[in-house]
């Protein structure tokens, strides 16, 4: 069963590339036939086929599709657009040189295009590997701190069980519980970003969801866990349906709300709002705290930066990974995400999701 599935997956790119090659050759042939009806001269035919061979090399994977298109183009030019028509004839004066030049130019174009695509792919893979390495370093640091805290709290309870009062014991257990919850959240974020980034062609299963229900669910969970600072919610009066994976978008909202609680210094109010702008739904989480340092704004969604200006005791609460997860989820929804400071003070995290033509 697995081998059959793997064979099917491997055959899909081949079929797609063959169909694209045939499509471009068919279009080139059709254009040449139409132009010959207007102008009997055939001097433009080789150049048009070279152009479409370039398109084949550009929009297919691998070198051989471009080479195959070059050979097929030479034969089509000979058979359809060289006298005597609808016959192969390689004996005309000067024709072998013309055909040879066309084949060399077409093949060289295909080779150069394929080489450029491979170099670009290598560059993209190198960037991905760099991001993975940075993310791994950040995760290693972020996981070590809460695990150490949990171990310390449990060890203190075990070793000092006889002398600890109930309040001290509960305080240590609550600290361990908070760290455990944070670890669970971190693992959920990592699983999400890994699942989406594992395949560039990941297709989310999106359904129209009522924003009102989504916001109510995220706000209820946030208030139950944190309570302070107070959360105010603003939603449109009319029903707003947004195509989305509701579980993932709720994760984005809860990540942003948690980020505001843990990192918005001096904030005593958090606002969660959503509105419609043209064919988009705009979500915002804002606070009235100290805002984001300007030097960090360009790297806010990198996923591995650390806020060195924060107290060391809060270093386990690195917001970079959570925000990177948010940006990845929104991008997978064909949306955009941004962060900026308000003029009156405080930070705003905004993400925009397309509503779709039917909305």
TrEMBL record:
EC number of the protein: 2.7.13.3
Pfam families from the UniProt entry: DUF4118 (PF13493), HATPase_c (PF02518), HisKA (PF00512)
Residue spans crossing the bilayer: 21-38, 44-60, 67-86, 92-113
Keyword Cytoplasm attached: no
Domain of life: Bacteria
Location(s) in or outside the cell: Membrane
Principal localisation: membrane
Matches recorded under InterPro entries: HATPase_C_sf (IPR036890), HATPase_dom (IPR003594), His_kinase_dom (IPR005467), HisK_dim/P_dom (IPR003661), HisK_dim/P_sf (IPR036097), Histidine_kinase_KdpD (IPR052023), KdpD_sf (IPR038318), KdpD_TM (IPR025201)
Catalytic activity reported: ATP + protein L-histidine = ADP + protein N-phospho-L-histidine
Name of protein: histidine kinase
Native organism: Yanshouia hominis
């Amino acid at each position: 069963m697995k081998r059959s599935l793997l064979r099917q997956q491997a055959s899909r790119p081949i079929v797609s590339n063959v169909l694209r090659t045939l499509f471009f050759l068919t279009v080139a042939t059709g254009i040449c036939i139409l132009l010959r009806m207007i102008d009997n001269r055939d001097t433009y035919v080789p150049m048009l086929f070279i152009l479409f061979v370039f398109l084949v090399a550009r929009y297919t994977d691998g070198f051989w599709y471009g080479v195959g298109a070059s050979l097929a183009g030479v034969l089509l030019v000979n058979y359809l657009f060289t006298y005597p028509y609808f016959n192969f004839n390689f004996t005309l004066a000067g024709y072998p040189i013309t055909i040879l030049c066309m084949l060399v130019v077409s093949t060289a174009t295909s080779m150069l295009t394929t080489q450029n695509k491979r170099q670009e792919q290598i560059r993209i893979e190198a960037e991905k590997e760099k991001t993975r390495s940075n993310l791994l370093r950040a995760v290693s640091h972020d996981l070590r701190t809460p695990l150490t805290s949990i171990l310390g709290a449990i060890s203190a309870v075990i070793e000092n069980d006889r002398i600890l009062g109930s309040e001290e014991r509960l305080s240590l257990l609550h600290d361990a519980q908070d760290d455990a919850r944070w670890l669970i959240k971190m693992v959920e974020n990592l699983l999400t970003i890994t699942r989406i980034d594992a395949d560039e062609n990941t297709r989310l299963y999106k359904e129209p969801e009522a924003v009102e229900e989504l916001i109510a669910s995220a706000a209820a969970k946030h208030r139950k866990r944190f309570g302070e600072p107070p959360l105010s919610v603003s939603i449109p009066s009319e029903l707003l349906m947004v195509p989305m994976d509701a579980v993932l978008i709720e994760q984005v909202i809860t990540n942003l709300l948690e980020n505001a609680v843990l990192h918005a210094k001096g904030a005593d109010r958090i606002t969660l709002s959503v509105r419609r702008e043209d064919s988009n739904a705009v979500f915002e989480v804002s606070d009235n705290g100290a805002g984001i340092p300007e030097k960090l704004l360009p790297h806010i969604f990198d996923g591995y930066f650390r806020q060195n200006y924060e107290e060391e005791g809060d270093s386990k609460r690195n917001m970079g990974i959570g925000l990177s997860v948010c940006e990845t989820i929104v991008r997978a929804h064909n949306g955009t995400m941004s962060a900026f400071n308000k003029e009156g003070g405080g930070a705003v995290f905004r993400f925009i999701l397309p509503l779709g033509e039917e909305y």
